[in-house]
Amino acid sequence: MQITLLLVASVQGDSLTILQAPEYVSFQKGDWPISGEKIPDMVALTMGFSVQEDLSWPGLRAGPLFQRPRANVLVVVRGVDSLALPESVASYPLENPVPFTLDSVAETVHTLFAEDTPVVLQLAPSEERLYMLGKANAVFEDLPVTLQQIRARLSQDGSVLASLPLNSLSRNAEADLLFLSEVQVLHDITALLQRHRHLAKDHSPDLYSLELSGLEELGRRYGQDSSQYQDATAILANVLQKFGEDLFGLYGDSAVVEVVTVKNFEVPHTRKSRSILESKQISNPGSPYNLAYKYNFEYAVIFNIVLWLMIILALAVIVISYNLWNMDPGYDSIIYRMTNQKIRLD
User: What whole-number percentage of the chain has pLDDT above 90?
Assistant: First the structure.
């Protein structure tokens, strides 16, 4: 039986918290800061994948080559710089909190385990952004994605509203419903995985990436000193703790669960941020889920091959055409040369 080391830790400031990890994925205690842009590399290394640049970060030690976790779950919580997560493996300061994605890790999983169809789920409920790959299309086909679907789910049987202590939170306010919708999504993901336990027993690793911004919206609406914000922070901390424990148990104590808390992402000056409640229109009207197109990381290689092959063929045609135009049939062509000799013999 695998044993997980549980330590009491308090999260202060933007941070990366390792909520759950098997003993063979060794995270060292310390205050070593990690840059936001390096988190995808850290996730890739925990899953046993190689990265383009070495991660010079002492928080993660090299583990066994042939023993890797079956899943990696990354939850990004926006709008909060502190969460009370008492049962965690380790916590590290997060510096340079720039927006990041796990697209490179998802592409690696899909490339290396294409025949095994692993579960890859990337979800941001507030932005109605969803990306599913492999078996996730079958497992999470009933997962509510749009805000309208999630809010309808809150009124159905098995909703989290029946079990959560709402306190000052309202069931009618837009900002409150956005936060509760994200909590409902976490609950439904766990429920669907419990229904498909066989996914945790295959040989392909699974990847989950979730981005929650309900607290950020509550802070904008009520302020961070409000009772609504404080109650929501306590609820989310308890929900994430249980969410990590449930997924860790479903994968047989062989999963890494990370929580990133970010007060504000450092975005480029050319990008204008807005609240999700300002508009109910999605950016891609042709798709109800606002799906992004799939980017192929071999595009640059294929482009260069096609480009230089066309240039070489064009130069070859020019050189051949020039030589044919300036060719002397009597001396350069063996056909005319043989014809001339035969005429002379006759």
Answer: 33
CB atoms within 10 A of CB 22: 24
Mean pLDDT (whole number) for 99-114: 87
What tokens were used for 8? Answer: 């009491």
* Nearest by Cα to 111 from 96, 129, 89, 133: 133
Nearest to residue 186, comparing CAs of 229, 127, 245?
A: 245
- Residue 289: helix, strand or coil by DSSP? coil
* pTM confidence score: 0.71
Task: Please state, as a whole number, how many other Cβ atoms lie within 10 Å of the Cβ of residue 293.
Answer: 6
Q: What are the CA-CA distances from residue 311 to residues 146, 299, 308, 324 (Å)? A: 48, 18, 5, 20
Model confidence at 75: pLDDT above 90: yes
Helix (H) or strand (E) holding 122, with range, is strand 119-124
CA atoms within 13 A on the CB side of 311: 6
**Buried b / exposed e along 30-41 (16+ C-beta atoms within 10 A):** eeebbebebbbb
Q: Which residues touch 178 (CB under 8 Å, ≥6 apart)?
A: 125, 126, 147, 213, 214, 217, 276, 277
pLDDT for 286 equals 46
CA 250 to chain centre: 20
The Cα 146–Cα 159 span in angstroms is 16
d(CA 206, CA 70) in angstroms, rounded, equals 6
